Amino acid sequence: MQTKSRFDRNSPEIKAYLNELAHQFVREGIMVAFPTCLPGMTTPITHDESHITALDINSEGHVYGGTSGRQAHLFGAAFHGLTGIVLDAGAVPGSTTTEAICCGTSRVIAFVNGPQGGRAVAMPHLDLAEDWIQEWGLEEPVLKDLGECVPGEPVVHAISAPSGKTVAGVTTRHLFTVDVESGVITVVGEAPGRGHLAMGHAGVFGQDEGTQLWHFDVASGHIRRAAVHLPDGEWAGPLRWARDRHSGLLFTADAAGRLFSFDENKGFRALGRAHLAPVGPMAVVPDGRLFGFCGDEMANLFSCDTVSGSFTNLGVAASILEQRRYGYQFGDAVTGPDGEIVFGEDDNGGHLWLYFPKIKGAISTPLTP
Prior knowledge:
Helices cover 2% and strands 46% of the residues. It has one helix at 12-20, and strands at 30-34, 51-57, 63-68, 72-78, 85-92, 97-103, 107-114, 117-124, 144-148, 155-160, 166-171, 174-179, 185-190, 198-200, 203-207, 212-217, 222-229, 241-243, 250-253, 258-263, 267-273, 279-284, 290-294, 300-304, 311-319, 325-327, 330-335, 341-345, 352-356.
């Protein structure tokens, strides 16, 4: 049975609200909620340990992620070819939240928090390209604890460099790097961690004090504080980012739901405004459209034409294939190899949600008779 820890979905008020929104579920495209297991063969990640809060994707199109809850789990997933599996790599001892997953060339580095502070954990690349209808040998991979990133400080976020050999991360007070192959952690210097990091052409951007961004050049190891000024907006909350892999443009939103594009040479450009705030996880599909969730408690999916800046409210997430499920909170998002978007559900019994956007120019079906 699907439940929600943040509010009572069985209350009369919530039921009335759901009935009112009944016509506002996923207006365009198709959503499929996939459980954290090999359906029919393994059991999903434990109900209260399955809030999916971090995702990344490697060059093979395999998705890696981490959960939060009573314990943090790491997993790998594959949805192309004859796969269709989420493989639980196991719980990380002493951890309750996963803050970031970073796919490197040789292995995956996860960043978790717990009573012992923020730590880095290495996970090998999983063999996810098998014929899972025929091959049923599921060996649990060995996770390697690389140690604290900065003693006594929780990790806020981390991101892989384009080379896949280095990961840059930030705690509440310091910036650090991890060598993917050796696992060596190096504290670079002071820089505040106030949200997600963004990878640009020339290095990593992070939220600095006030309304500014700091910049980290991975090659030289140089941190430049107050490198970029944010545009006029409400910037008190932690930033979330999306990146267009083709153009290199970055996208973020302020606390009021106003979306901005960021070109490292031209600066920020104001786009439209989401109909709810705050804006959560976002991802860009190959044709340049941006999709994401906005709003608290009962998030709505939106799309944004990043050229015109126009927004479309696509409604509340719902999956009707195989098993009916509604989605209300999401923790992270990545774009898949065929242009689909994978959203991680930040909820008890969390699923990976695959969203297949409507193709531009496709014939529309009337929403009402």
